Every structure is written in C-alpha cells, then in structure tokens.
Amino acid sequence: MEKMQGENEDGQISSADENYNGALIHHQSILRNKRCLLAYMYHRANRLQRLRWQLGAVLPEDVKELLHPSEKEFVKSYSEALSSYMTKLDIDLAVDITPPKDPYIQVRVLNNIGEVLLGDQSTSLVRNSIHFVKRSEAETLISQGLLEEFTG
Amino acid sequence: MANYYDIQDILMQDETVSTVFLHKANGAGFLDPSSEDNNVARGSVVDLPLWLAQDLVQRQILHIKLPSCFNARHEQCRPNLPLILENVLRVRKEVQADPACVDLHSKCPFYYEMGCKLVELSVDPTLGPFLLTTLQGRYKDLLCKALTATLSGNLKFLPHLTEEETRLFEAGRDSVKAFKKWRLQGPRIEKAAILGRKRNRDATPIWS
User: Fold this and answer.
1) Domain named DNA replication complex GINS protein PSF3 N-terminal: which ranges (chain B) (predicted)?
2) Is the pTM of this model over 0.90?
C-alpha cells in the first residue's frame, strides 16, 4: 500500500520537488553547523561568566590570551555591569558563596604579594606568614590562589 | 528550543539511523555512497545522522528504520530473513532477562535519549514502555553502586553505562564526596579550579 501511495504521488511530483529535497538537505546541514557553532560560543561565554564570579575582575594571563577580542569585550562589559550593580547595592555578591561560620578567618600567605589593603590597615603579606583577617576580604584572595586557609 | 544549546542533545543527534528515501533528492548524492551521479534515488537505503533524518521524516521525504539496538519488531523487518529477526530480538530478550548487565554503551551511547526521539518519529508503540522498564531495572543497581563507590572499585561496569546513566552515576558519587567533606569540615573556600591547571604552552607560572 505504501508503494502504491508512492507511485501515485510520483505522477504528480515534478523535477522541482526533487531539487527541493536536495536543497532542503543542504539547508539542514547549514542549520546544523550554525547550531554547533552557536552552542560552542554560548558555553564559552558561560565559562567566562563563572570565572568572573570565582576570580574577580582580573582574569589570569593564560586565559586572556586564549580569548577572542569580542569575548574580551564581553568580559569587560559583564564585569562593569556586575560591579555597578554591586556598588549600587553596596555589598559584594561574589563573596560568602558558602554560608560563613565566623566573620574572621586565619590565613597563611602562599606567595609574596607585598602591601595589601586589608580592612583599614595595609599589611605586608610575606610568604608563610599567618594573619587573622575578615572573611570577605580573604575570600577573593584565597580563590585567586594567593592565600590558604590555615587549619592549625 | 530548550535543547538548542544543550551539548548532550547535539552529540546525541549525531548518531546515525538507517533510512529509506521515499522521494528523489537531487544534489545530495554525497549521502549515498552507491549513487553514481549526484542524486539520491527513490527507495535507496542511506545512513543519515538523526538531526537530518528527523527533519526529513517530518516532511515525509523518508522513512526511518528503527535501529537494531532497539529491536525493531517492525513492518520494515523482512520476514524472509529469519536470521536478522533473531539477532534483532536478542536485544530485548537480553534486557528482559537482566537489565543491569546489558552493555548499552556499545549499542548506542545515547540509548535513552535516542529512543525518546525515535518514539516521536517512528511507528513502534512498544518502544516507549520498553525504554522505561530498561531504565527502571538498571536504576536501582546504578544508584546503589554510585553511593557506595570507592575510588578504586566498581570500575568494571562503568563502560557499560550510557551517557545519561554515567551522568547520574557521577552526580551520585560527587554528592557522597561533598557529604564526606562536609562531615570532616574540610576547607570551605578553595582556590578556583582553573588556576590549578598547568598549560602546555607557557613555561612561566601565573603567580610567581
């Protein structure tokens, strides 16, 4: 019965329909390529957003050199939008991702950074020195890998 | 369109299905390795990826044959070739006997998602319930192993899992790890994961 139906339609199908089918196949391939490329860019942009939340406004150098100029634009404007939002609310949203137990935390310095403004005083962070700092400030530095939590 | 950017969906649609063309298609001869000119003739059997086959089936340009891994007990199975029928029935029998042991990954890495797509497109009404019973049979075993897995054991059956099951397994394992870490009160703020990786190109470390 299927064959008969096919033969029936065959009489009515002109050569234009055959070309239509071929064109359709090519069109679908183009759409597929577009989808793959868009998905790749979308996931890259997602990763950059996550990096901004984890590391703060400055990206590490080896990540920066892998970015396309338009991605650098994206990072810059996303970062600006985030910081203007956070200053309007007057809190830093990127800290305290896990609920803190203590407002203060003990940290050990892993690398020499020099003078850093911690709270109201600027402290000089020498390697392997232990400090008792406020958790919100320590959090950005820990996630950048400069400090380590000291669980003595 | 919620799946448009979903990587798993994109990968899944790369799997091929065997299709029969109902109408001719000009200029698409690269799909059919046996065509001499650049055309696909009516009635030719071609292996197409699912993303292409799906659209063409909806426009009724071709017919999808259910892949043998789903056991096509289907009108397209020719009754005068009993050997093929036997091979094809074997999958369902294997699954009905013991779902937990069947190696689904080698048959099709995206077994369940592919089956779901084919349920919408093809004629076989028993495919949906069959997929459900398969997953039910495997799920309990999967969950037990995921939540009790140690680092070294339980590696033998992992290659048998499909992609979706592997994701479930890893989610279970990660949740157990996180629970143990919480229990032991490990460090709660950590260095961002991206910084730990060493790049092959640069010899200089990031933070010196």
Assistant:
1) 5-56
2) no
